[in-house]
Design brief:
single chain, 428 residues, alpha+beta, Butyryl-Coa Dehydrogenase, subunit A, domain 1, Butyryl-CoA Dehydrogenase, subunit A, domain 2, Butyryl-CoA Dehydrogenase, subunit A, domain 3, four-stranded mixed sheet, 13 helices, 10 strands, 42% helix, binds flavin-adenine dinucleotide
Length: 428
């Protein structure tokens, strides 16, 4: 839908319409970003400090996006969404990264866990999904154990039914965001010790329950991104079951599709922005000397995007994916490595020897180049409503962005004229 302004200009509405096409969503979202660029300025960089500070910093962004409706797109109305397609939300996420903002880390968790809650525990979804999208709740996954990682079917955390509750005892590890999480979906054994993957059940556990101890684990970058979770006689109500007793394996396999697919989509958006930032950090001679490596890195990101895009569409259509979705995961791992290796090569020796913000941020976080923080160019919205649909000027760069530190232009070319980042659209 396009509405007319008083001066006869035509512009997209700045509120999300779940019936809108992807072009319209993107343009409306850009317009909203421009409109709110003052309040959004703090969200152009992430301090690679501790996880709790990062959460506190991005919580207002999650609230803003929720209140404006953008992150409610594609979630069912039964759990606080606006309806529409998850692909619309994917468009919003990519546009957020493409306009130079950080995608809040916690969206990855919501994208992975919420579809499982919606399918297997709709009443829990109705209670929790909106809170997570708005940033009021943090979730984590409790699957891996000290002796059950790749071989998940050997896990030993046990849940014993007692009346209308379960008593849970065991230990989980590697829970991403575990140190700040309120809730965890925990895979437990309800069958006998030999039942392997047939004797598992998924529970939704309140991490403030008596008997829960969370011990954050520092990763190599110093950030406590994961945690061990100890469960000692934790009482969990039966109504916090996710799926039937004994059906934990199909439930976790359903979740894994989103872990591999939706997460890869988010990361490709971020990796593309990282590469763009790298171009801004390198000198002309560094760029010339490393042109083929940079080209290969962009190709890797486009390949990842082309893989993740049909995955998103398939999941959005309600179809399940089998082992082929592992390709997304492998491609993501390889692409992340390529981007970091390219930065190391182009900025040599900054990543090894340099104490500058740029070297430090690539080493510590890898995803938040410091130039977003240190740019001398004030980010001023120079966008103009277009009466004639003319395209962005060449100096705005790819899809009218950010090399010049300005807000994206609202009169950017329509999707079919956009350059390569727009190929392999999730709508395809
Ligand atoms: C940053 C990070 C975040 C994570 N977040 C979470 C989370 O939120 N929730 C969660 O539950 N887990 C999480 N994990 C855990 C992750 O999924 C585990 O690394 C995984 O479960 C592997 O377990 P492991 O580390 O014990 O390795 P192991 O299972 O001991 O495997 C060690 C090596 O042996 C190989 N191997 C194992 N079995 C076989 C086999 N049968 N054949 C061939 N090779 C084999 C593996 O490929 C690997 O190379 C996270 C891990 C990391 C690093």
């Amino acid at each position: 839908m396009v509405v007319s302004a008083p001066l006869g200009l035509r512009f997209p509405p700045m509120t999300p319409d779940p019936n809108a096409g992807l072009d319209e969503i993107r343009l409306s979202f850009r317009a909203w970003l421009c409109e709110h660029q003052g309040s959004l300025e703090p969200f152009r960089s992430d301090d690679p400090g501790n996880l709790a500070d990062s959460y506190a910093r991005f919580r207002p962004l999650m609230r803003m996006l929720f209140d404006a409706g953008w992150t409610r797109l594609g979630w069912p109305e039964s759990c606080g969404g606006l309806g529409g397609s998850p692909v619309q939300r994917a468009e919003v996420m990519e546009e957020l990264a493409a306009t130079g903002y950080i995608i809040p880390e916690l969206y990855a968790t919501t994208e992975i866990i919420a579809p499982m809650l919606i399918k297997y525990a709709p009443e829990l979804a109705a209670l929790h999904v909106a809170k997570a999208i708005a940033g009021d709740e943090v979730w984590c996954q409790g699957f891996s154990e000290p002796d059950a990682g790749s071989d998940l079917g050997s896990l030993r955390t046990r849940a014993v039914a007692e009346g209308d509750t379960f008593r849970v005892t065991g230990q989980k590890m590697w829970s991403s965001n575990g140190g700040i999480a309120n809730w965890s979906c925990v895979l437990v054994r309800t069958g006998d010790a030999e039942s392997r993957h047939r004797g598992l059940t998924m529970l939704w556990i309140d991490l403030s329950s008596p008997g829960v101890t969370v011990r954050p684990t520092a990763c190599e970058n110093g950030r406590e991104e994961v945690a061990e979770v100890f469960l000692d006689d934790v009482i969990v109500p039966q109504n916090q079951l996710i799926g039937p007793v004994g059906a934990g394996w199909p439930v976790v396999m359903y979740l894994m599709q989103y872990e591999r697919g939706a997460y890869a989509w988010k990361r490709q958006a971020e990796l593309h922005s990282q590469l763009d930032e790298l171009l801004g950090q390198a000198s002309d001679s560094e760029l010339r000397a490393n042109a083929s490596a940079i080209g290969a890195a962009y190709l890797a990101v486009f390949a990842l995007r082309s893989q993740a895009s049909p995955t998103l569409s398939t999941l959005a259509s309600g179809r399940d994916l089998g082992p082929e979705i592992s390709v997304d995961k492998l491609l993501l791992g390889a692409t992340e490595q390529i981007i970091t290796d390219t930065a190391r090569q182009v900025l040599w020796p900054a990543l090894e020897l340099d104490d500058s913000d740029i070297g430090d941020s690539w080493r510590r976080a890898g995803r938040t180049p410091a130039s977003r923080q240190s740019t001398a160019v004030p980010r001023k919205c120079n966008a103009t409503w277009s009466a004639n649909g003319s395209s962005a000027s060449p100096e705005d760069g790819e899809h009218g962005r950010y090399g010049n530190g300005t807000c994206p232009r609202l009169d950017a070319a329509p999707r079919d004229q956009l350059p390569a980042r727009r190929t392999g659209d999730p709508a395809a």
